Amino acid sequence: MADAAPMPAWQSLSAKIVHWILLVSVLAMPLTGVFGSYFGGRATSVFGVFTIPAAMEPSKAIAGVMFNMHGAFAMLTIVCLVLHVVGALKHHVIDRDDTLKRMVGKA
Fold it and tell me: For this UniProt entry, which segments traverse the membrane (predicted)?
C-alpha cells in the first residue's frame, strides 16, 4: 500500500469537523444526561463511586430540553462514527493508502 497521499481540501475539512463533533459529543452527551436526570428529579450514580443528588425543585421543562439534547448528541455521534468508519475504509479499499494502518498504529 502507498503512503497517505495529500487529501483534497474538502476531505481534510470534513475529517476535522467529524473529529471535533465526536470530541464535543463525548463530553456533551453524558453531561446532558446527568443534567436531565438532575432536573428530572432523579439521583445519578457515577460508576458506583458517588451519587449526584436530584434537584430540590425538579423542572420538567429543563429536563425535557436536556434529554432532547442527549438524544440529539447520541444520533450525531452515531452518524459521525459511521462517517469515520466509511472514510477509513474508503482510504483502505479505494485509495489503497496507509491511512487506516496509521489509525490503528500499524504504520
Answer: 20-41, 61-86
Q: Could you report the per-residue pLDDT of 19-35, keeping only the tens digit for each?
A: 999 999 999 999 999 99
Q: Which residue type does 39 have?
A: F
Query: Taking the CB of residue 100, how many other CB atoms lie within 10 A of it?
Result: 20
pLDDT, one tens digit per residue, over 5-14 is 677 899 889 9
What CA–CA distance (Å, rounded) separates 31 from 33? 5
Cβ contact 99:7 at 8 Å: no
8 Å CB contact between 15 and 23: no
CB 42 within 8 A of CB 60: no
